[in-house]
C-alpha cells in the first residue's frame, strides 16, 4: 500500500459518514421529507376553526407517522449502550501470525467505532448496576469490516449457545411482575445458576468488583471466545483477544454504585462523553494470547471452553497495538442504536474455532439485526457501511438504499462477463481454514468441559483481601434478595466447591446452612486477575474542591494547579453556584453544589472551607468527606477542612492528607493518593 492509499483509507470513513450527516437547520426553510416548503407547522388542516382534522393534511400525516415509527426494537441484551469513534494502530507487523492487513503496517490508522453497554437492563436503565459490560469494536479495514464483539469479563455463563435464551430469560426481570430491572438479585436467576454449575466461574466475576467498573475508560475488554489467526502460509494459531485500558482497570464501591444510579444514571456515558470533549482520549492496548495448534490439548483446561480463561501466567498476553477514542457520536440513534455488530464479520487472517458458544453466536447476531433494523439491508446504514467497495448480487428487501443498474442479478453469468467475480485466496479472497472434521451426529460435550470449579477457585485465590470481602458482600446482597430458601441453600452447596471460607461467610449472612463439605482444594492463583495489580494513574480523574466565602486563596490555587498539572480535573464545589471570593480577594467559580453533585461523582476530595463558612456549608462538607472516607477515596484538607476532619475522627488514616504550613509535599502526596484509586487498608468508621 502506497502513502496515498494509506491516507485515503485513514480518512475514508469520516468522509463517508460526512455525506450522510444533515447540515445545521439554522436559517433553513422548513420542508416535508419530499422537499415541499411548508407555510405552517403548528396547526392541523381542519374543516373550520372548530371542525375535524382533514385526512388530506399530508403534512400532519407525514410528521405524525414518522414520530410514531421513531423507535425500533431495543436489543434483547446490551440495550443500554454508549459509543464513540476512534482509530487503531498496530505497533509492529503481525505477519508471522496473521495475514489480516490492518495488523501489518504501523503507519496505517484504521477507523473504529466502539459501543460499550450493560447487558441485562433495558435501554432506560442506569449505567451502574452489577452486571457484565459489552465492549464491541468495529474496525473499518480496507478488506472489509471486522467486528471484535467483547465483554469486560473474559468468560461466560454457558458453554453451549443453545442455553443462551435460558440464561437471559432467567436474569431478566421476572415475567409475572417485570421486576427487578437490571439486576440479578432475584429468584429466577439464582435458581438457574444452582441448576447449571458451569456458571460458577462467570458468577464469581459477576460478584467481583469487575461488575461495577469506575468508567468505560478504566474497563478491560475480552473477546471471550477462541478464534484463529491464519498467516500467509496457512499456519493457524488459536487466539484470544484482550483490550487493556491505559489508565488501568478500576471499579466503584457497591454502595457508591447504588447512589450514583440515583444521582446520575448516565454516569458512565457522561464520563466518556466529557473525557473525549476535554481531549482526555480513552486509550486501550490490544493484546493477544496465542496457542499453536499442536498445543491444543497441552493445558489442564479446554481452550475451546468459554467458561475458562487462559491464565496469563501460562499463556502470556502479547500487546500488539493501541486504540484511541477521539470523537463522540453526532447522533446516538443513527450511530449507537443502529450499529450492528456480528462476530462473523471477519477479514482474511482471522477465522473461527469450534468453541460451541462462538458457533451459536455466528447465527444469533445476524438473526437479531434482521428484526431490529428492518431486514437484510442494515449494512447500508452509514454507521455499518464498510470503507472498501462492496459488490454482490443480493437485491431488494426493506430499506434498500443502493440503486442497482443492469439486468443481471445472478452469479455465473455471461451477460455481465460473470461480474461480480470471485478472487482467489492469494488475491485477497477469504477462504476458511481447512480443518478435518468428522464424527457422529450427537448432542454431547467433551469430558474436558466438565470441570466447573477449578478456575472459579483460581479466581478467588487471585483476589486481594478487599476484593474477597467485596465478593462475599455481593453474594450476601444478591442472595439476600432471593425469597426461596431452597434456592439459597442450593447456591451455598454449589459454591462450597469453589471455596469453603467464602461460602460459609455468605451462607451465614443469608440465613442458609453453612456447607459441610467442599470440593477439591485448588491452590493455584493468577495475579493478573486482581485489580490490585493494575496500573494506577491520577490522569483524568476527578477531584472535588470544597470552598466557600473566605477560602484560603493561596492554598486552593496551589492545589488546583497541582491537580491540573497531573491531569486531574479539579471541580470547584460549594453550597451555591457562581463566583466565590477568597480571604485574599481571589475568586473562583463554583460549577457544582452539594445538591447537584455528591461525593460519589468524584474520585477524591480536597476541603479548605472558608472563614465565612455557614453551619449549613460545614454540615454538608463534613457529610461529603465522611461519604468519601467510607468509599476509601483520598481526602486532602487545609484550614477548616482539617478541623472538620478531626471532629469526625477521620484523620490519621490511609489516604488522608493534611496540609500543614511546612508540608511542602502536600499537593504531591494528594496526587499520589489519587493515583492509588482506593485505600483499602483504611479503617472505616
From TrEMBL:
<feature type="compositionally biased region" description="Polar residues">
    <location>
        <begin position="524"/>
        <end position="535"/>
    </location>
</feature>
<dbReference type="InterPro" id="IPR024712">
    <property type="entry name" value="Catalase_clade2"/>
</dbReference>
<feature type="domain" description="Catalase core">
    <location>
        <begin position="31"/>
        <end position="419"/>
    </location>
</feature>
<feature type="compositionally biased region" description="Basic and acidic residues">
    <location>
        <begin position="1"/>
        <end position="18"/>
    </location>
</feature>
<dbReference type="GO" id="GO:0006979">
    <property type="term" value="P:response to oxidative stress"/>
</dbReference>
<keyword id="KW-0349">Heme</keyword>
<feature type="active site">
    <location>
        <position position="78"/>
    </location>
</feature>
<feature type="region of interest" description="Disordered">
    <location>
        <begin position="1"/>
        <end position="43"/>
    </location>
</feature>
<dbReference type="InterPro" id="IPR011614">
    <property type="entry name" value="Catalase_core"/>
</dbReference>
<dbReference type="InterPro" id="IPR043156">
    <property type="entry name" value="Catalase_clade2_helical"/>
</dbReference>
<comment type="similarity">
    <text>Belongs to the catalase family. HPII subfamily.</text>
</comment>
<dbReference type="InterPro" id="IPR018028">
    <property type="entry name" value="Catalase"/>
</dbReference>
<dbReference type="GO" id="GO:0005829">
    <property type="term" value="C:cytosol"/>
</dbReference>
<feature type="binding site">
    <location>
        <position position="372"/>
    </location>
    <ligand>
        <name>heme</name>
    </ligand>
</feature>
<keyword id="KW-0376">Hydrogen peroxide</keyword>
<dbReference type="InterPro" id="IPR029062">
    <property type="entry name" value="Class_I_gatase-like"/>
</dbReference>
<protein>
    <recommendedName>
        <fullName>Catalase</fullName>
        <ecNumber>1.11.1.6</ecNumber>
    </recommendedName>
</protein>
<feature type="binding site" description="axial binding residue">
    <location>
        <position position="365"/>
    </location>
    <ligand>
        <name>heme</name>
    </ligand>
</feature>
<feature type="region of interest" description="Disordered">
    <location>
        <begin position="514"/>
        <end position="537"/>
    </location>
</feature>
<keyword id="KW-0560">Oxidoreductase</keyword>
<dbReference type="GO" id="GO:0020037">
    <property type="term" value="F:heme binding"/>
</dbReference>
<dbReference type="InterPro" id="IPR002226">
    <property type="entry name" value="Catalase_haem_BS"/>
</dbReference>
<dbReference type="Pfam" id="PF18011">
    <property type="entry name" value="Catalase_C"/>
</dbReference>
<dbReference type="Pfam" id="PF06628">
    <property type="entry name" value="Catalase-rel"/>
</dbReference>
<dbReference type="GO" id="GO:0046872">
    <property type="term" value="F:metal ion binding"/>
</dbReference>
<feature type="cross-link" description="3'-histidyl-3-tyrosine (His-Tyr)">
    <location>
        <begin position="342"/>
        <end position="365"/>
    </location>
</feature>
<feature type="binding site">
    <location>
        <position position="75"/>
    </location>
    <ligand>
        <name>heme</name>
    </ligand>
</feature>
<keyword id="KW-0408">Iron</keyword>
<dbReference type="GO" id="GO:0042744">
    <property type="term" value="P:hydrogen peroxide catabolic process"/>
</dbReference>
<keyword id="KW-0575">Peroxidase</keyword>
<dbReference type="InterPro" id="IPR041399">
    <property type="entry name" value="Catalase_large_C"/>
</dbReference>
<dbReference type="Pfam" id="PF00199">
    <property type="entry name" value="Catalase"/>
</dbReference>
<dbReference type="InterPro" id="IPR024708">
    <property type="entry name" value="Catalase_AS"/>
</dbReference>
<comment type="function">
    <text>Decomposes hydrogen peroxide into water and oxygen; serves to protect cells from the toxic effects of hydrogen peroxide.</text>
</comment>
<dbReference type="InterPro" id="IPR020835">
    <property type="entry name" value="Catalase_sf"/>
</dbReference>
<dbReference type="InterPro" id="IPR010582">
    <property type="entry name" value="Catalase_immune_responsive"/>
</dbReference>
<feature type="binding site">
    <location>
        <position position="115"/>
    </location>
    <ligand>
        <name>heme</name>
    </ligand>
</feature>
<feature type="binding site">
    <location>
        <position position="164"/>
    </location>
    <ligand>
        <name>heme</name>
    </ligand>
</feature>
<feature type="active site">
    <location>
        <position position="151"/>
    </location>
</feature>
<dbReference type="GO" id="GO:0004096">
    <property type="term" value="F:catalase activity"/>
</dbReference>
<feature type="binding site">
    <location>
        <position position="361"/>
    </location>
    <ligand>
        <name>heme</name>
    </ligand>
</feature>
<keyword id="KW-0479">Metal-binding</keyword>
Amino acid at each position: 500500500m502506497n502513502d496515498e492509499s494509506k491516507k485515503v483509507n485513514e480518512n475514508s470513513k469520516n468522509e463517508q459518514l460526512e455525506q450522510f450527516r444533515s447540515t445545521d437547520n439554522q436559517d433553513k426553510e422548513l420542508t416535508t421529507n419530499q422537499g415541499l416548503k411548508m407555510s405552517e407547522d403548528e396547526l392541523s388542516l381542519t374543516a373550520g376553526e372548530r371542525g375535524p382534522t382533514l385526512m388530506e393534511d399530508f403534512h400532519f400525516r407525514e410528521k405524525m407517522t414518522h414520530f410514531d415509527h421513531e423507535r425500533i426494537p431495543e436489543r434483547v441484551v446490551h440495550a443500554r449502550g454508549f459509543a464513540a469513534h476512534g482509530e487503531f494502530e498496530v505497533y509492529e507487523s503481525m505477519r508471522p501470525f496473521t495475514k489480516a492487513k490492518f495488523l501489518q503496517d504501523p503507519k496505517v490508522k484504521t477507523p473504529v467505532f466502539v459501543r460499550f453497554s450493560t447487558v441485562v437492563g433495558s435501554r432506560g436503565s442506569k449505567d451502574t448496576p452489577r452486571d457484565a459490560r459489552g465492549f464491541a469494536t468495529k474496525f473499518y479495514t480496507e478488506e472489509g469490516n471486522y467486528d471484535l464483539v467483547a465483554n469486560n469479563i473474559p468468560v461466560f455463563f454457558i458453554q453451549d449457545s443453545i442455553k443462551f435464551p435460558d440464561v437471559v430469560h432467567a436474569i431478566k426481570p421476572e415475567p409475572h411482575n417485570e421486576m427487578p430491572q437490571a439486576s440479578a438479585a432475584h429468584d429466577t436467576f439464582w435458581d438457574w445458576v444452582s441448576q447449571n454449575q458451569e456458571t460458577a466461574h462467570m458468577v464469581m466475576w459477576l460478584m467481583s468488583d469487575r461488575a461495577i467498573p469506575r468508567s468505560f475508560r478504566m474497563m478491560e475488554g475480552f473477546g471471550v471466545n477462541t478464534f484463529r489467526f491464519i498467516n500467509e502460509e496457512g499456519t493457524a494459531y488459536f487466539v484470544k483477544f484482550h483490550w487493556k485500558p491505559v489508565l488501568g482497570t478500576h471499579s466503584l464501591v457497591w454502595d457508591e454504585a447504588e447512589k450514583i444510579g440515583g444521582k446520575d444514571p448516565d454516569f458512565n456515558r457522561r464520563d466518556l462523553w466529557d473525557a473525549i470533549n476535554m481531549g482526555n482520549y480513552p486509550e486501550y492496548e490490544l493484546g493477544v494470547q496465542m496457542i499453536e495448534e499442536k498445543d491444543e490439548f497441552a493445558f489442564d483446561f479446554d481452550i475451546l471452553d468459554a467458561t475458562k480463561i487462559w491464565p496469563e501466567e501460562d499463556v502470556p498476553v502479547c500487546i500488539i497495538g493501541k486504540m484511541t477514542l477521539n470523537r463522540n457520536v453526532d447522533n446516538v440513534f443513527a450511530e449507537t442504536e443502529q450499529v450492528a455488530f456480528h462476530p462473523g464479520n471477519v477479514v482474511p487472517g482471522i477465522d473461527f474455532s469450534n468453541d460451541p458458544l462462538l458457533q451459536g453466536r455466528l447465527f444469533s447476531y445476524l438473526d437479531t439485526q434482521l428484526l431490529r433494523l428492518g431486514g437484510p439491508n442494515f449494512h447500508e446504514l452509514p454507521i455499518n457501511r464498510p470503507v472498501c467497495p462492496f459488490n454482490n448480487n443480493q437485491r431488494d428487501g426493506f430499506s434498500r438504499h443502493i440503486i442497482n443498474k443492469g439486468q443481471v442479478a445472478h452469479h455465473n453469468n455471461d451477460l455481465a462477463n460473470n461480474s461480480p467475480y470471485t478472487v482467489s485466496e492469494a488475491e485477497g479472497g477469504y477462504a476458511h481454514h481447512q480443518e478435518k472434521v468428522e464424527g457422529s451426529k450427537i448432542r454431547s460435550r467433551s469430558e474436558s468441559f466438565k470441570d466447573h470449579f477449578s478456575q472459579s477457585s483460581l479466581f478467588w485465590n487471585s483476589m486481594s483481601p478487599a476484593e474477597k470481602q467485596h465478593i462475599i458482600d455481593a453474594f450476601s446482597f444478591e442472595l439476600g434478595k432471593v425469597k426461596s430458601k431452597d434456592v439459597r441453600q442450593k447456591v451455598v452447596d454449589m459454591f462450597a466447591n469453589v471455596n469453603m471460607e467464602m461460602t460459609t461467610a455468605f451462607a451465614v449472612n443469608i440465613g442458609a446452612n453453612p456447607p459441610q463439605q467442599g470440593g477439591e482444594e485448588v491452590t493455584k492463583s493468577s495475579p493478573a486477575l486482581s485489580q490490585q495489580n493494575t496500573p494506577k494513574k491520577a490522569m483524568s480523574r476527578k477531584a472535588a474542591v470544597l470552598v466557600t466565602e473566605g477560602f484560603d486563596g493561596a492554598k486552593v490555587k496551589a492545589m488546583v494547579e497541582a491537580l491540573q498539572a497531573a491531569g486531574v480535573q479539579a471541580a470547584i464545589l460549594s453550597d451555591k453556584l457562581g463566583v466565590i471570593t477568597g480571604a485574599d480577594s481571589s475568586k473562583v467559580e463554583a460549577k457544582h453544589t452539594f445538591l447537584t453533585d455528591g461525593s460519589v461523582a468524584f474520585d477524591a476530595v480536597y476541603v479548605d472551607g472558608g472563614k465565612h463558612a455557614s453551619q449549613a456549608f460545614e454540615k454538608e462538607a463534613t457529610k461529603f468527606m465522611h461519604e468519601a472516607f467510607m468509599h476509601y477515596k483520598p481526602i486532602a484538607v487545609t484550614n477548616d477542612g482539617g478541623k472538620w476532619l478531626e471532629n469526625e475522627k477521620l484523620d490519621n488514616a490511609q489516604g488522608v492528607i493534611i496540609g500543614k504550613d511546612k508540608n511542602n509535599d502536600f499537593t504531591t502526596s494528594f496526587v499520589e493518593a489519587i493515583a492509588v484509586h482506593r485505600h483499602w487498608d483504611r479503617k472505616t468508621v
